[in-house]
Amino acid sequence: MANYDVKGMSCAACQARVEKAVNGVDGVTSCTVSLLTNSMSVEGTASPDVICAAVKAAGYRAKLSAGEISFDDDTAQIRSRLMISAVILIVLMYFSMGVMMFGWPMPFGIPHSHVTIAVTEMVLSGVILWINRIFFIRGMTGLIHRSPNMDTLVSLGSGISWLWSLYILARIISAHNSGDMDRAGALSMNLYFESAAMILVLITVGKLLEAVSKGRTTSALRGLMELRPQTALLYRDGAEVIVPIEEVGVGDIYIVKAGDYIPVDGVVIEGESRVDESALTGESELVIKTVGDHVSAATISGSGRIRCRAEKVGEDTTLAQIIKLVSDAAVTKAPIARVADRVSAVFVPAVIGIACVTFIVWMLTGAEVGYALERAISVLVISCPCALGLATPVAIMVANGRGARSGILFKTSEAIETTGRVQNIVLDKTGTVTEGVIIDDTVAGASGADIDRTAGDRIRPDSAEAIRELKAMGIRVAMISGDKEAKARAIAGEAGIDEVIAEVMPADKSDKVEEMKKSGCTIMIGDGINDAPALTIADVGMAIGAGTDIAMDAADVVLVKSSLMDAVSAIRLSRKTLTNIHQNLFWAFIYNCIGIPLAAGCFIPLTGWTLTPMFGAAAMSLSSVCVVTNALRLNHVKIS
Known about the structure:
- The protein is of the alpha+beta class.
- The protein contains 24 helices and 20 strands.
- The strands form four sheets. The chain has a seven-stranded mixed β-sheet, with helices on both faces. It has a six-stranded antiparallel β-sheet with strand order 6-5-7-13-8-11, with no helix packed on it.
- Helix 3 runs antiparallel to helix 4 (114-131) and helix 3 (75-102) runs antiparallel to helix 8.
- The radius of gyration is 31 Å and the shape is elongated.
């Protein structure tokens, strides 16, 4: 899978357009685009140049990423644009509202006339349109490439308002020159210069709030990236030297003082320290590390001075692998998002069509052109494809970060969704329910043929509690083992497991899981090489952190702390995420279903309710913010 950074997207319609363009390239087997992170993942044999060319032909820009999410924080740029626009808008409103409606005096000795006021409004609003020209550039580019987007709606709404006002200004000047001041005054009431400017300012307010909120959804991944040490203290030729982290190689000896970050994964060869591993595991209790113990990059030596030998460096460290897992999950797409994607693909053209129909209908009812335009413009600026596009990915991203902070790593968005739908769980016995084979010192020299394989194999301290929790959640729990029936049932009884599948050969585990899947969504939890096929065949495979690399590669979810209680937490988090997504999708759909008819004036005959373009723009701005804010609540849900 190759990851790309995509530039120029502004809403879900853009996302759908890019996906369609790339999926149409020969050699591409799948393409997933994330509006939240402005990233794209592509599988297949097509070359990066061909893929980037397809994105460019669709009206956007793409380039190969460095393998991780790139955070293009344009918050500062949006804030600057907003501040300047807001100041000019205040001056504009002084003329359009204060002078025109309340008779306030003209400043700076400007002659008081309908023409001078209108021209002043035109100039001030024109400056605001120029400052926010990005909406028009992106909107018209999308229209030219037959992929209208949210910016198209905004630019059409604002642009039509401004051009209509320009036409009215010409008529005001004509009436003024002919001496018909009453006509000039009446025409002045049909100016929409301030609406054209206000629409852009309000949408920019929403964009700023959205950018800030989006930044919070990726805070967990940003935090992980910021943990990466930049230097290491190496022991070379009898001396201690500080080197850039990139210069550390496997086998190098490095030193960690109290309070310092451990630079790379390694093994302690001298000294002892209490290490804070909370950044990786979410566990706040310090862990004692002494000679022979393994340490991980980005953990902190809380006390003592230790000397270690580097075992994994660069992209092979535990931290780098976690970052990669979280990053890869961010550019995948959950199945639940497909409904919103299908709607988003046709949403903007449909809204433009509705706006045209609205204008025509009001004209046929005998309304003035200005009023019919106001209704059509309101439709354009209240519609929000962004809320639909963000409903799922923001919740997935927040949940992914929430899980990472707790030592639960989801590899894909689909895994986050599917985990919450679990009905059956199959647990491997040795090393999952139990701690693994423990051989007493008195028989340490005996033969894997003379010693009972289950001798001393005790269940993990929290296995029984976790199994009680799973059963209380209505989940069917079974244990699978290669041991004899009696021995397997003894362990199962101690752990509180009623269903036991014993005397199963490693090659047959996947068959048993496949059979279990017939009765519902099934999770397999294991840790060994022989669990890999079963982990792959299950709807969701979970590998405990102390397991083998092969098992973790085959799994969809990694439980870093090797605790079955984290499986319970993963399921809870997934279920809460699904609920959050449903709330977001409901809000996004219901907002547009109510807002568009309201803006079109459908409720006027029944209730008299109407909506100005300015209120429509404000509603559009807040809709996406509501979706993102609701997703951020997942940061505070209790899952343990």
